[in-house]
Structures are given as C-alpha cells and as structure tokens.
Protein: NAD(P)-binding protein
Amino acid sequence: MPKTRVALVTGAGTGIGRAIAFRLAQDGFNVAISDQLCNEPGLTTLVAEIRELGRKVVAVTADVSVEVEIQGMIQRTVEELGQLDVMVANAGVMRFKPFLETTSDDWQKIFAVNGLGTFLCYQYAAKQMIAQGHGGKIIGACSGSGKQAEPMMSAYSSSKFAIRGLTQATAVELGQYGIQVNAYAPGAIETPMIREIGEIVGDWEALKAQEVRKAPVGRFGIPEDISNLVSFLASDQSEFITGQTIPINGGRLCD
Ligand code: NAD
Structure:
C-alpha cells in the first residue's frame, strides 16, 4: 500500500498557512504544522481540527529565520510522519512604511524571515526529498507586490521579488530530481497581516472597498482562495508546472 503523503506548512498558526494546512489534511495528507512560539496556541487548535479529519498531525514551533530550527522542524516531520513530500514555505512578515522611513533593521528583519527563511525551507526540504528519491513539491509565498511594487512596502516587496527569483532558480536546478517548485502571489487576502495594514491606515472598511473595486471578481480575497491553488500545486496534477509564481488576486492584471 502506498504511504500517506506528508506536507509541512510554516506560518500555519493563522491566516493563509492555517487554511493551507487544513486543506491539505482534507486532501488526505498527514501534516506537520509549524509556527513561531508566540503562535503556538493557533497550532494547538489546528491540531485538534486536523485530528478530527482522521489525519496524523505534528505541531512544531520553529523560527524560520534560524537555520537550526528549520533543520529541527524537518527532522521532526520525518521522524514522526515518515517522510516529506510537500513543503509550503508560507511564513512571512510585512512592514507598512514609507521608503524614507524604512530602517536597516526593518529591511533585515523582513529579509531574515521572507528571504533567508524561504531559502532555507526550500533547501532543507529539497535535500530531504532528494534523499527519499521520489520527487516532491516545494511551494513558496510570494505576493502581488513581488510582481508589481506598491507604495509603503519597499522592503516587503523586495523580499517577495526575491522569492519569485528563488522559485525560478530552484525549479531549474531541482527538476532533475522530480521536484517542482512554484509560488502563490496573493492579492489582498483577509488575514491578521492585512488587518494590520487596515489598522495603520485607520479605515479597514475603506481599504477593503478600495481593493474590491480593483478586483474584477468584485470581492475581497479569503485564505481558502489560496489553499485551493496550493491543493492543486501539491497534487500530481501539477507535474508539468514549475518555476511559476501564480497570481491569485480576483483578476487584477500583473505579469
Ligand atoms: P499572517 O501575518 O496572518 O500570518 C503569517 C504567519 O507567519 C504567522 O502565523 C506568523 O506567526 C508566521 N511567522 C512570522 N514570522 C515567522 C518566523 N520568523 N518564523 C516562523 N513563523 C513566522 O499572514 P498571512 O496573510 O496569512 O500571510 C501568509 C503569507 O502570504 C506571508 O508570506 C505573506 O507575506 C503572504 N501574503 C499575504 C497576503 C495577504 O493579503 N494576506 C498577500 C500577499 C502575500
């Protein structure tokens, strides 16, 4: 009997990562869910929900900007669930600030998580998948602002452009091992991250209405819009797709 496939999702305690982990469990994966320590309560409730689906689940706290913690996260996934078939490097941070007020500290923090963290998740997952010898899927979190820069997000946008480059570069090198690497590029999706922007601009409803006006489908995005795509990218159906960063934004045009 074939073994149940295993997915690992970072930033799974809330928002988009939570929806992805739950969806992959619904799809039949055993799931490792990871987040930083301060989001452990989010992991605990998700563990119970995934167990109710009859899937195996392991929760691992790890800071993706720390190399040994990523190594430990992948090691525990394999020890407890047997293998790693799908890596979703979803964890990310954002700063909503004018370029002229963005500090080197802001830049470094964003690049430590979005840049280095994604690079290390891709690399350690790829090493594990190559050792297993039967391919795999690596999926990253880019952003609409990793394709088309927007005001107030210079460091964040730059880090997401980096993820798009990393996704292409790794797809080219990992194809020979049967590993496909793709990323999702969400527009505005209702999660704690986007609500934080709402709080900074002071009018969440106005921000939402502005985004809805820009989207031909005429509604605001929800985490399940992203998990639907990740479900496909994690499946065998996506085998001929690699190196792509796919926009999911209600129809706003970008490359
Ligand atoms: P969120 O802020 O709601 O969740 C992000 C998750 O990442 C949290 O669980 C957080 O604890 C985790 N995280 C942050 N730093 C971490 C670290 N150092 N180590 C481990 N985990 C860490 O954000 P979200 O909206 O769910 O976003 C998920 C991903 O999608 C992010 O990469 C984000 O940049 C991207 N994205 C989101 C939107 C949106 O509109 N929500 C749009 C484009 C891209």
About this structure: Helices lie at 15-26, 40-52, 67-81, 104-132, 154-174, 192-201, 204-214, 223-233.
